[in-house]
């Protein structure tokens, strides 16, 4: 399957596979500010479930980027063809206020920038659906739920093994049934943005 991820439902509908998993294109907001001179030293990549933000430096340390680690900020399902590209003022204010608890030297005077991106959340169990489908030649890898970057090597390996029927010492040893299209939802005690 081509990389359709947030657009996957239209393609799955065409082949009658859209009912199996609730895969929702979801708007994700990001804020960034210029790093004020009052913040000195390295800024580590930090995810703070108490204040509900993660942050890191970007642009060679000249900016600070802030995002959310709260499931409540992953609820805005959108039409991927009409994604609002900006960051909402309320979101930016709330997250910068939360960041202030971790970086107390932060000034509120900085110009605020931001944007929205998309990822596809599998609302059932926040795990991807990966592997062959009943349609000959069609393989899926979707619903990474915001973890597509770090899961990519394993997912690529699962798909390659499914297509070739072969595996090597470098391949993942994840059981293909674990993420298969016809699996049962994985039982989770909580569904979090950091799942
Ligand atoms: C806000 C946000 C936060 C995320 N956080 C995380 C995280 O913390 N951890 C994690 O594991 N994953 C995270 N993800 C998911 C991760 O970013 C994606 O799973 C990953 O980037 C997908 O990689 P990709 O190479 O398939 O696609 P992309 O990274 O989207 O790359 C596709 C590239 O193709 C280019 N392109 C598109 N169309 C064309 C065209 N017609 N011609 C030429 N070029 C084209 C695009 O410009 C883009 O550069 C996040 C996603 C978002 C939106």
Automatic annotation (TrEMBL):
GO cellular component labels: cytoplasm
Q: Which residues form a coiled coil?
A: none
Could you give a single Gene Ontology term from the biological process aspect? mitochondrial respiratory chain complex I assembly
Q: What is this protein called?
A: FAD dependent oxidoreductase domain-containing protein
What keywords sit in the KW lines? Oxidoreductase, Plasmid
Q: Which organism is it from?
A: Sphingopyxis macrogoltabida
Q: Does the keyword Phosphoprotein apply?
A: no
Q: Which Gene3D superfamilies match?
A: D-Amino Acid Oxidase, subunit A, domain 2, FAD/NAD(P)-binding domain
Is the Oxidoreductase keyword given for this protein?
Answer: yes
A Gene Ontology molecular function term of the record: oxidoreductase activity
The segment(s) forming the FAD dependent oxidoreductase domain are: 5-161
């Amino acid at each position: 399957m081509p990389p359709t991820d947030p657009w996957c439902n239209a393609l799955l509908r065409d082949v009658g596979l859209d009912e199996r998993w609730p895969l929702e294109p979801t708007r994700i907001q990001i804020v960034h500010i210029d790093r004020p001179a009052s913040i000195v030293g390295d800024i580590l990549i930090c995810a703070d479930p108490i204040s509900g933000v993660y942050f890191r430096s970007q642009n060679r340390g000249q900016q600070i980027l802030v995002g959310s680690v709260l499931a409540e900020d992953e609820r805005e399902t959108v039409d991927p063809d009409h994604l609002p590209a900006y960051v909402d003022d309320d979101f930016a204010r709330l997250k910068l206020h939360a960041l202030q608890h971790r970086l107390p030297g932060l000034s509120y005077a900085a110009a605020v920038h931001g944007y929205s991106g998309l990822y596809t959340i599998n609302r059932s169990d926040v795990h991807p659906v990966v592997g062959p489908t009943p349609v000959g030649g069609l393989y899926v890898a979707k619903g990474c739920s915001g973890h597509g970057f770090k899961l990519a090597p394993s997912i690529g390996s699962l798909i390659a093994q499914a297509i070739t029927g072969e595996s090597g010492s470098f391949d993942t040893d994840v059981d293909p049934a674990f993420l298969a299209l016809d699996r049962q939802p994985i039982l989770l005690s909580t569904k979090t943005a950091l799942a």
